[in-house]
Design brief:
Blueprint lengths: L3 H11 L7 H6 L45 H7 L5 H35 L2 H31 L1
Amino acid sequence: MTSNWANNLDILAQNGVLDFDAASFVTGQAPRYVGAPSAPPSPYLGPPLPAAPALKQPQVDEFHQKKSKIPSKQEQDRDLVKNPTWKKWVFGALAIGTLGVGICKFKSLNKWVKNTFNKINWKSTKKFFVDKGKAIGEFFKKGWNKFTKLFKK
């Protein structure tokens, strides 16, 4: 037999899984050692592995945030943008002016839209869309008929 299976059994014995010489038991030979060996049976195997440390698992699934020092009022204010009052007034005036110009333009735009809709010939527009709808329907109908003919053969 090859020795790799014996090495695997020796590793199990070395780490405390087995407490006897399993390889000698399988082959019917006298045991090479009794219990977990203190020295590894092969020079290529390292020392026994240390026991796994006990992990501190939480009892409840929750998140504990680390408490940090509360920043002072100066540190909080340092990060904020401080606009002077005159900038606020100028921005307000520009916003109100832009709103006024927009309303005036909207009134003229509203007149243009109404005139444009009055110029449209709605009967010809309706006929155009009805004709195009029928053409699209015929296109898909012809395509479906061609597709179904492939499977009827």
